C-alpha cells in the first residue's frame, strides 16, 4: 500500500483481510487452480494470496527492487497466511471474540495515534486502496490473534524475584540500548555439508552486494532473508545488551552504527547483523505525590444525593479546621486508607485513578480540594507534598522481569505455533495455482 499509515498493528496492511475462512467443502465450486493452500477444513484462495501480495507490492511501488522475486514473496506471504489462519481458528474455538464496541475503540486509537479523526482515517484508507470493512476485519483479526497469544502465555509464564536477581547479577539491565537488523539464510535440521557450504556462499554474497552499495541492508533483507521479519527489512527493534545472546554482546559493543557483521553461524543458519543505531539510558525519575483522602461511596442505604450531601458536610468541617485524619477514620469508605487517617502515601499521578490524579496535580501543597466525583463515589483530597523520585533501580528490576517474561512468552508461544502447525493438515498448491 503506497504511503501506508504508520503505527498500525503488525501485518495489518500487508495482509489485508485475507484471512476470512473459506470452508474446504467449497472446493467443489471453486476451480482447482483457485486454491493455493488447504488448511484443515478450510482453504486459502489465490485471490486472497494475490490481495495480500498486492498490498505489499503497493507498499514498495516506488522501490520494487527491494522485494524478492514474485515466487519467493508468495511463499513468504502464504506461510504467514497459513499460520495466521490456524491461529484464528484456534482463537474462535477457544471462544475469543472482539465485540463491535471493542473494535470501534481500537479504530479510534489507531486514528488518534496517526493524528486523524475516524473520517480522515476512512478517507486515507480509501486513497490507499483499502476498503473500510476490509480494514475493520483485519484489525478484528489482529486483536483476536493478540488475545490468543495473551491467553496462552499468561498462565504459563511466571517470573520469580530470584530469577530477577540472577539476571541482574550477570547482565547489564537499564544500560545502553541498540537497534538491530538481521538477514538469515536458513539451514534445515541435519543440514548436509553441501547445504551448509551453499548457505555460507549465499550469506557471503549478500554481504558483498550490500558492501558494494548495490542494495542497502533493508532491501537485501526483504529480498533474501529467510527470517520471519524479512518483510520488515530485517528490523529486530531496540534491545538492551541484556536481551542479546551473550556470544553476540562483545561483537555488537565493538560495532559502530551502520556497521554490518561478518557472516555468523547459528542454530537456524547463517546470518548478518547490522547495528542500526544506539541510545543511552540515563537516570530515571518519576513525579510522586503525597496526599490524604476521604471517600464517600453511595450504597443502597446511602443514595447518591445523600452521599453528595455527606461529602459536602465533611468538606465544610475540614474548612472550619477539623482534623482530616480524625474525620477520615470516622467517615471514609476507603478501606485501604481509613485506618491511617486517609493517608494515601507517596504515589504516581494516576495510581489512585485519573479523577484523583487530576485533582492532586492541580492542588498546591497543603491545599484542600473541593468535593469531586469518580466512579467509586465522592472524594475530598488534601495534597501534602510532591517529589521527584529516583526510580532507576525499580525500573531496572521491572525491565529484568520483562526481559525474562518476554523470553519465556516467546519460547512458549513459538512452541505452541510449532505444535499448531505440526498437528494441522496443510497442503500448499502454489505451483498448481501459479
TrEMBL record:
It catalyses: [protein]-peptidylproline (omega=180) = [protein]-peptidylproline (omega=0). The PPIase activity resides only in the second parvulin domain. The N-terminal region and the C-terminal tail are necessary and sufficient for the chaperone activity of SurA. The PPIase activity is dispensable for SurA to function as a chaperone. The N-terminal region and the C-terminal tail are also required for porin recognition. This is Chaperone SurA. Keywords: Chaperone, Isomerase, Periplasm, Repeat, Rotamase, Signal. It is found in: Periplasm. HAMAP family: Chaperone_SurA. The keyword Isomerase applies. InterPro entries: OMP_Chaperone_SurA (IPR050280), PPIase_dom_sf (IPR046357), PPIase_PpiC (IPR000297), PPIase_PpiC_CS (IPR023058), PPIase_SurA (IPR023034), SurA_N (IPR015391), Trigger_fact/SurA_dom_sf (IPR027304). Residues 175-277, 286-385 form the PpiC domain. Chaperone involved in the correct folding and assembly of outer membrane proteins. Recognizes specific patterns of aromatic residues and the orientation of their side chains, which are found more frequently in integral outer membrane proteins. May act in both early periplasmic and late outer membrane-associated steps of protein maturation. Pfam families: Rotamase (PF00639), SurA_N (PF09312). GO terms for cellular component: outer membrane-bounded periplasmic space. GO terms for molecular function: peptide binding; peptidyl-prolyl cis-trans isomerase activity; unfolded protein binding. Its main location: periplasm. The gene is surA. Residues 1-26 form the signal peptide. Its EC number is 5.2.1.8. GO terms for biological process: Gram-negative-bacterium-type cell outer membrane assembly; protein folding; protein stabilization. The lineage of its organism: Bacteria, Pseudomonadati, Pseudomonadota, Gammaproteobacteria, Lysobacterales.
Amino acid at each position: 500500500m503506497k504511503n501506508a499509515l504508520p503505527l498500525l498493528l503488525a501485518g495489518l496492511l500487508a495482509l489485508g483481510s485475507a484471512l476470512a475462512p473459506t470452508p474446504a467443502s467449497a472446493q467443489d465450486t471453486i476451480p482447482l487452480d483457485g486454491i493455493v493452500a488447504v488448511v484443515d477444513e478450510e482453504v486459502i484462495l489465490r485471490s486472497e494470496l494475490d490481495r495480500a501480495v498486492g498490498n505489499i507490492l503497493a507498499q514498495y511501488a516506488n522501490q520494487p527492487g527491494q522485494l524478492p522475486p514474485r515466487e519467493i514473496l508468495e511463499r513468504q506471504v502464504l506461510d504467514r497466511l497459513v499460520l495466521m489462519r490456524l491461529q484464528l481458528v484456534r482463537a474462535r474455538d477457544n471462544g475469543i471474540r472482539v465485540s463491535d464496541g471493542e473494535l470501534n475503540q481500537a479504530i479510534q486509537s489507531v486514528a488518534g495515534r496517526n493524528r486523524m479523526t475516524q473520517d480522515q482515517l476512512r478517507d486515507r484508507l480509501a486513497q490507499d486502496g483499502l476498503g473500510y470493512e476490509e480494514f475493520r476485519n483485519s484489525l478484528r483479526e489482529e486483536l483476536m490473534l493478540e488475545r490468543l497469544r495473551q491467553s496462552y502465555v499468561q498462565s504459563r509464564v511466571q517470573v520469580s524475584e530470584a530469577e530477577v536477581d540472577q539476571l541482574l547479577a550477570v547482565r547489564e539491565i537499564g544500560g545502553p540500548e541498540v537497534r538491530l537488523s538481521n538477514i538469515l539464510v536458513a539451514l534445515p535440521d541435519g543440514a548436509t555439508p553441501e547445504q551448509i557450504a551453499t548457505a555460507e556462499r549465499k550469506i557471503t554474497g549478500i554481504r558483498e552486494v550490500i558492501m558494494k552499495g548495490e542494495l542497502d541492508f533493508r532491501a537485501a533483507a526483504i529480498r533474501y532473508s529467510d527470517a520471519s521479519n524479512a518483510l520488515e527489512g530485517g528490523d529486530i527493534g531496540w534491545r538492551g545488551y541484556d536481551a542479546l545472546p551473550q556470544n553476540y554482546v562483545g561483537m555488537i559493543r565493538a560495532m559502530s552504527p551502520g556497521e554490518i557483521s561478518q557472516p555468523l553461524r547459528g542454530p537456524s543458519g547463517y546470518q548478518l547483523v547490522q547495528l542500526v543505531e544506539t541510545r543511552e539510558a540515563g537516570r530515571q525519575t518519576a513525579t510522586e505525590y503525597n496526599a490524604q483522602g476521604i471517600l464517600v461511596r453511595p450504597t443502597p442505604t446511602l443514595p447518591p444525593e445523600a452521599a453528595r450531601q455527606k461529602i459536602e458536610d465533611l468538606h465544610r468541617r475540614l474548612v472550619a479546621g477539623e482534623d482530616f485524619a480524625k474525620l477520615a477514620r470516622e467517615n471514609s469508605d476507603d478501606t485501604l486508607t481509613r485506618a491511617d487517617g486517609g493517608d494515601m502515601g507517596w504515589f504516581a499521578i494516576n495510581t489512585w485513578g485519573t479523577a484523583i490524579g487530576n485533582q492532586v496535580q492541580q492542588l498546591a501543597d497543603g491545599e484542600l480540594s473541593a468535593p469531586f466525583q469518580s466512579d467509586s463515589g465522592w472524594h475530598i483530597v488534601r495534597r501534602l507534598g510532591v517529589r521527584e523520585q529516583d526510580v532507576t533501580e525499580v525500573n531496572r528490576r521491572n525491565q529484568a522481569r520483562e526481559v525474562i517474561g518476554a523470553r519465556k512468552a516467546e519460547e512458549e508461544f513459538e512452541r505452541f505455533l510449532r505444535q499448531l502447525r505440526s498437528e494441522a493438515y496443510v497442503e500448499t498448491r502454489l505451483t498448481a495455482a501459479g
